[in-house]
Amino acid sequence: MYTGPLPYVFEDRTGQLYGSDFDDMYDRLFYRVSREPHKTVTMLYDMGRRASRHRDSLPFQRQPIAILDFLPDRSLGNICYAVNGNVPIPMNRYLKRTSIFGGSLSRKFTGSDGKDYRWSHRSVQGQEWTCTTGTENFIVAHFDLKPADVRVYDVSGNTLTIYEQFIHLSVEILASLTIMRHIAQHNL
After folding, report:
1. DSSP-assigned letters across all residues of 82-134
2. Cα-atom radius of gyration of the chain, to the nearest Å?
3. Integer Cα distance of 129 and 9 in angstroms
4. Where residue 74 sits, what CATH number does that domain have?
5. Segments forming the whole domain that contains residue 134
6. Neighbours of 54 (CB within 10 A)
7. Which of 46, 153, 169, 170 is 20 to 30 Å from 32 by CA-CA measure?
8. How confident is the model at residue 154 (pLDDT cuts 50, 70, 90)?
9. Rounded to an integer, what distance in angstroms lies between the CA atom of residue 175 and that of residue 97?
10. Number of domains in the chain
């Protein structure tokens, strides 16, 4: 029987890059990644409650906790967090390539705790994206897509798992994952 802290497992409700809710299966945290049609700005919101409980019943009047401003040609623009007064940081400086000769799908960022975290694409079997830290590559979070041959009922099957000791970085993890997925989708 497992007695450690439970990881935060967020269901990615739609699996779409720019329009989905991320709801923790134990009702602890709820985020939305949203972009208006034909715009380049993607915003992350702390929703306060599960998407299925408010999607159509409440007016949407929240301030974003992170703003990802991509350029019109889909290249990387700026990122800013509400906690730092929405000061823009160029995305290519925020998420740096891990190797001069390596691909663009392995990048690192410095978290608000001062530690470096690295996203890599398909580096661990069964995980679409894996976020690690330290020289021992300790897994911090991972994003998993539903396998095509697996049936699901009333859920999308796509999940973002953040281990409990890193939940203080949840907004940074989700924002950086969104940028990494954008990089992969647009071959940047």
Report:
1. GGGTT--EEHHHHSEES-SSS-TTEEEEE-TTS-EEEEEES-STT-SEEEEET
2. 16
3. 14
4. 2.40.160.200
5. 8-185
6. 16
7. 153
8. low
9. 16
10. 1
